[in-house]
Structures
1.
Amino acid sequence: MKALTYRGPGRRLWAEVPDPAPTDPEDAIVRVDAATICGTDLHILHGDVPEVAEGRILGHEAVGTVVETGPGVRTVAAGDRVLVSCISACGRCASCREAAYGQCTGGGGWILGHLVDGTQAEFVRTPFADNSLHRLPAGITDEAALMLADILPTSFEVGVRNGRVGPGDTVVVVGAGPVGLATIATARLYSPARIIAVDLAESRRKAAGRAGADSALSPDDVERAAADGLGRDGRGADVAIEAVGLPETFELCTRLVRPGGRVANVGVHGRSATLHLEDLWIRNLTITTGLVDTSSTPLLLDMLAAGRLSTGDLVTHRFGLDEMQDGYDVFADPARTGALKVAFFRT
């Protein structure tokens, strides 16, 4: 089969690799019908994730069709159309029993495209298939379901749920890339009074408006607005959600929230951010971080099937699987291409 492999910092290759086969009774082999790229894949290519070995097949998001299962698999079978979750879960360890699948200590967690071969390929071996694959309703398209492999549950769990977004809140989402837009869409489920998106790029600010933001500002404009108060009674936002992964955007979030407010960090950081405790200690802030657990994926699938959740305009570019290299070039240069999510489909 063909797959996209990591060849060291700055190097990737679409080439022939051996077909995957079950190595554990709980494995399934899935034919990849649709896949996408995550910002984390770019971090790997930049050399920020040293655990990724040279030759690893990248990717942790896919929709596909089960073609083979190990003898221990009970809930999916050959022919089933499934969502491949970005998180694998053994289902037995203490973390999995608490539905903290991202922290699985039984061989799961974020392993696809990280510690084991991933989804940017024609076929993928999926460990712990019973807990890590989700059968898809017939009415959900591959493209719509693909957004639930990672960015929708990530934005919902690590951003909206950790940030305790509630009715009437003023919510600031810093970063209007794919995860930021998914955060806006899922924050709306909790009826906040106002959602403010912040991004440098005008095109992404416009995308935030289409996703449901009430206003979209540049970082300078939101700082000026904060001087007059973003929320009720001239105070700051109730919740600020960081969806970029840069020191300056994290620090901006801490400046935008009111005393007693919440900062939920979603972005993947490749370098240190300063925590200004000399200013923050007195403000009663709650700061949360997290890796997605995907415990919300069944709920989000139900809402998508019922028409209560839309993946909207998240996918901006579409390619065949064998155009993976072109897709990476587009995704890695959003200022030039306007890319949000790119999707690859079996042709």
2.
Amino acid sequence: MDAAFTAEQEEIRRTLRELVTKRCGPDEVKAAVRTPAGYDAALWSALAEQLGLPGLAIAESYGGVGCGPAELALGSEELGRALTPSPLFATAVLAAPLLQRLGTDEQRSELLPRIATGGLTAALAVPGTGLATALGLVGDNLGDWSGGGRAGGVQAKLSDGVWRLYGQAEQVLDGHSAGLLVVAAHTGGFARSRTLLYLVREGAAGLVRTRQTSLDETRPQARVELRDVVAELLGATDDADVPGVLAAVGDTAATVLAAEAVGASDRALERTVEYVKQREQFGRAIGSFQAVKHRLADVYVRVQAARSAAYYAAWAAGAGPEQAGAGSAPAGAGSGQAGGLALAQALDALRTAASEAVQLHGGIGFTWEHEAHLYFKRASSDELLFGPVHRLRARAAEQADLFAAAKASGATAPTGKAPTGKAPTGKSPTGEAPTADPAQPTAAL
């Protein structure tokens, strides 16, 4: 693995940081989230036209830049520093890869160039609150999360050659403003039960979208209701491996989210360090107290560890499972688990950094006027949407067959009982009390 960034990648980072720093301060963020779209349309146009951000990972043949997950992760890291509200994640990280992988030539030719230029935004709509499940981040996505049976979720029915959708999806990221919805729906009844993806255009009859009040206003969510909506099947046939594609997109999405969380936690730490150098207590800056130094040092270590994990996951996503698993990771830990593990590490770092920012800012850190609460809300919201952390790690362990390997080797968790199932008697096999070995330390009672 080559951990060094190329000159082009460094230029993406530098240019994006300059633009975001200039046009997306805390006041601008708070103003942008209160617009109907939930983001600054002028800033989004600048990101698309000047930097080509939404088209970074789209092939050049469709008007994109032709880069990979690493560049997209670097861009998201810079946006995460300022908590920039934008449809980038929903459009370029979730929807566009699905179009590239499953769409027909006509669908890709029509939609991807518009996404690459920023003229079209898109969103992935999954039923209920199962986005993390649909992306395979916290468990297997082979079940009926899209709406199994005859009711619930979103149902798709083919009638006279036309697909129609019925149902409702909650927590659709940027779903209230997206010009295109990629909807996951259940079809086939009990005989051929499966999940397929459908395209729903803006203004379709029977489509009702409502922006919801969310914990993190910088990542707006919507409720999407589908009332006999005419839809277009994504792809040429109805036998595509949708769960497999969603899981692959989910790993890349986790990588991008991890980089975004690293940027947010790094900025929260920077702001806190700046503040403790200025705030005085007992005639001296509180940053000079050893206890404060220790707390911030712990945060710094967490942020750097999360950054390393995110960068590795971005490299692994671009390198592919064969190269990523060859001498660069523990056995069984290929690129399929790197994204989820990096996201768990990054969310943990962001929660810690945001909590310390609120605490060390004192009374002002709890107020709406200060930006510290924005980072704390982002940490909490992301864990609710894509976690929690312990389930992300458990899923990675399950994919790597760690539990199966431990069982095969005969390792078992301590039960507090002897191997025979009887309570230990404290005697040796001969029936005598064991004698202490003077060369070994005795256990503390």
